[in-house]
């Protein structure tokens, strides 16, 4: 099978973006490198302190611009170009803008006709209001209300992943984006196109319904998607705001888009809509010399089988993350597999990894390990404080493991009532549920008959040692070292009620085994049967053993994952497999049609 146009564009463009400042994610005719006077190479950034703005900073710097931060209302008024990256909850963002007296200067600036670019929540705040946060007023520049996606349509919320744009007219902002190109979305609320805001709506995107994905009027522009997380195409879109093209170049881009639109009706034309994600998951820990390395375990044992039993070393985290990005990964996850032992805020090497990776990787970054509340030196630190530090260092999402299991136990002990004290609740309240991933590390517990246990059982895809035909999935903590009396279905339901947005699903039994058939049956027959009804975005972690096995495992895993809410997360099991599968994993996965 062949790669779709979008897959070729987004992946080949990343390599070229490292060697040239002229980003060309689509056709060569769209390459541009606009000369800009040195005095104009400054952008004012409205950072109100929520979420990962470091990625936006790095994207702006990569395009050759310096940044001036807004520290007082007059900085907004004095700006020549203003970028407003909004992350988190609508109400919290409006509270900050009002407390700092930014609302009137911001509205006046946009109405003055000077260049403005909003990102994600920075688009939503332009509307009259939102139902989020109990209902709040917005800046009221665009008619319409922002509301949550309609969950009755059967699609998981948040809308997370790479989706296409339906451009309604030509623009400088989206001149580099062809109809089949994809950009990265992560949001639970959306604005809807209507007659009253038709003069603003630049593009729509379909996720069960058409919602507003970009707006433009005069010099004011905004996107619901994250250009700073959309690879080379996203950087080109950001350049489209910073360096508007000539009328001739824009007309050429519009003509190219028209040709591609005409070809969409062909059976062999590029597919559109939400794509499966390919996520590089890097297990990170300190080796015996104290250096952070990427490692891989055999049933979570990451030490070599022979010799001095050193920690298995597959490479440096930042270098591997950058390489995976260049080779086509849609997302990169760093899992600090010994983070449960340490004081999270003193984990300076991991914070440094995030900061360095965000300068080279322009797709979403997830970090996990030790995301919890803790006490140190007589002070109590909330999980929100820990997560905030990771977000400031470059993370877009945090993955919570052991703490989620303990929180779920308390949730059921309290009669299925939340109290706002858990890490999941605290983080999702401020940053949104899309910022919270729960990592489930389950292992099979075999039973002869479901009546033997209170836990949800399924027919086992692989019989037990004594021929048991049934099993339930026991949740573990502390890196799989300790089992708890709670099953994965209970955990999934509990963390959903608390406000988590995604599940990262691991498999202790098959970790590092390269048992392709067992993995296929496990993910398809056991877990998908249990978790598909919950409507979760489910990531199946595929652990590949050897070069040939890596090919087959990836092919089978994608074939087995039929639900549109299910994605494949890939990791290499051995150093020998890493070098070979690093490229072929993506290539094999990309051959499969988009859902």
Give the helix level as a range of percent: 25-40%
Based on secondary structure, the structural category is: alpha/beta
Radius of gyration (Å): 24 Å
Taking the sheet with the most strands, its summary is: 8 strands, mixed
Report strand %. 15-25%
Whole-Å distance between the termini? Answer: 15 Å
Task: Kindly list the characteristics that best describe this protein.
eight-stranded mixed beta sheet; disordered N terminus; 29 strands; 595 residues; disordered C terminus; alpha/beta; eight-stranded parallel beta barrel; 24% strand
Element layout with pairings:
Layout: H1 5-17, E1 42-45, H2 54-62, E2 66-69, H3 73-78, E3 82-86, H4 90-99, H5 103-111, E4 116-120, H6 121-124, E5 127-130, E6 136-137, E7 142-148, E8 159-164, E9 166-167, E10 182-187, E11 189-191, E12 201-206, E13 210-217, E14 220-223, H7 231-242, H8 247-263, E15 278-286, E16 292-295, H9 317-326, E17 331-336, H10 348-357, E18 365-368, E19 374-376, E20 379-381, H11 383-393, E21 397-400, H12 402-413, H13 423-431, E22 436-440, E23 442-447, E24 458-459, E25 470-477, E26 482-487, H14 488-498, E27 502-505, H15 516-531, E28 537-544, H16 547-560, E29 566-572, H17 575-590
Parallel strand pairs: 1-2, 1-3, 3-4, 4-14, 5-7, 15-17, 15-29, 17-18, 18-21, 21-22, 22-27, 27-28, 28-29
Antiparallel strand pairs: 5-6, 7-11, 8-10, 9-12, 12-13, 13-14, 15-16, 19-20, 23-25, 24-25, 25-26
Helix pairs in contact: 9-10, 11-13, 12-14, 15-16, 16-17
């Amino acid at each position: 099978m062949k790669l779709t146009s979008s897959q070729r564009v987004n992946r080949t463009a990343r390599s070229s973006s490292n060697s040239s400042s002229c980003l060309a994610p689509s056709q060569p005719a769209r390459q541009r490198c606009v000369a800009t006077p040195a005095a104009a190479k400054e952008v004012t950034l409205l950072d109100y302190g929520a979420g990962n703005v470091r990625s936006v900073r790095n994207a702006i710097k990569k395009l050759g611009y310096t940044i001036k931060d807004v520290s007082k209302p007059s900085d907004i008024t004095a700006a020549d170009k203003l970028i407003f990256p909004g992350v988190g909850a609508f109400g919290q963002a409006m509270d900050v803008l009002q407390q700092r007296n930014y609302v009137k200067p911001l509205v006046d600036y946009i109405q003055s006709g000077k260049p403005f670019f909003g990102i994600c929540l920075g688009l939503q705040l332009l509307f009259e209001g939102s139902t989020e946060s109990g209902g709040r007023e917005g800046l009221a520049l665009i008619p319409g209300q922002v509301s949550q996606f309609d969950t009755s349509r059967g699609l998981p919320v948040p809308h997370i992943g790479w989706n296409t744009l339906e451009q309604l007219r030509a623009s400088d902002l989206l001149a580099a984006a062809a109809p089949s190109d994809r950009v990265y979305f992560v949001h639970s609320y959306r604005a809807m196109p209507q007659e009253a805001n038709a003069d603003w709506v630049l593009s729509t995107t379909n996720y069960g319904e058409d919602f507003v994905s970009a707006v433009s009027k005069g010099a004011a522009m905004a996107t619901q998607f994250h250009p700073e997380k959309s690879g080379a195409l996203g950087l080109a879109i950001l350049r489209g705001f910073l360096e508007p093209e000539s009328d001739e170049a824009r007309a050429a881009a519009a003509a190219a888009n028209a040709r591609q639109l005409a070809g969409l009706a062909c059976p062999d034309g590029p597919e559109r809509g939400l794509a499966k994600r390919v996520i590089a998951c890097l297990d990170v820990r300190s080796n015996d010399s104290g250096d952070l390395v990427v490692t891989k375990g055999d049933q979570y044992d990451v030490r070599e089988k022979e010799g001095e039993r050193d920690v298995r070393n597959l490479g440096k985290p930042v270098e591997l993350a950058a390489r995976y990005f260049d080779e086509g990964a849609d997302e990169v996850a760093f899992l600090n597999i010994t983070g449960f032992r340490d004081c999270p805020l003193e984990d300076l090497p991991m914070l440094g990894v995030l900061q360095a990776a965000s300068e080279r990787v322009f797709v979403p970054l997830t970090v996990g390990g030790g995301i919890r509340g803790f006490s140190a030196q007589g002070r109590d630190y909330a999980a929100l404080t820990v997560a905030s530090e990771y977000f400031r260092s470059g993370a877009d999402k945090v993955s919570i493991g052991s703490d989620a299991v303990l929180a779920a136990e308390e949730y059921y002990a309290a009669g299925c009532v939340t109290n706002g004290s858990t890490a999941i609740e605290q983080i999702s309240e401020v940053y949104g549920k899309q910022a919270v991933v729960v990592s489930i590390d389950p292992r099979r517990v075999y039973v002869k008959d479901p009546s033997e246990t209170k836990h949800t059982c399924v027919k086992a895809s692989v019989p037990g040692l004594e021929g048991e035909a049934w099993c339930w999935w026991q949740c573990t903590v502390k890196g799989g070292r300790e089992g708890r009396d709670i099953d994965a279905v209970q955990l999934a339901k509990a963390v959903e009620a608390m406000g988590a947005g995604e599940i990262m699903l691991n498999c202790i039994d098959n970790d590092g085994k390269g048992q392709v058939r067992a993995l296929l049956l496990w993910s398809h027959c056991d877990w998908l049967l249990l978790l598909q009804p919950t409507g979760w975005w489910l990531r199946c972690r595929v652990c590949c053993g050897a070069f040939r096995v890596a090919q087959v495992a990836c092919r089978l895993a994608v074939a087995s994952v039929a639900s549109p809410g299910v994605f494949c997360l890939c990791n290499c099991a051995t150093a020998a497999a890493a070098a070979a599968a690093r490229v072929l994993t993506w290539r094999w996965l990309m051959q499969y049609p988009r859902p």
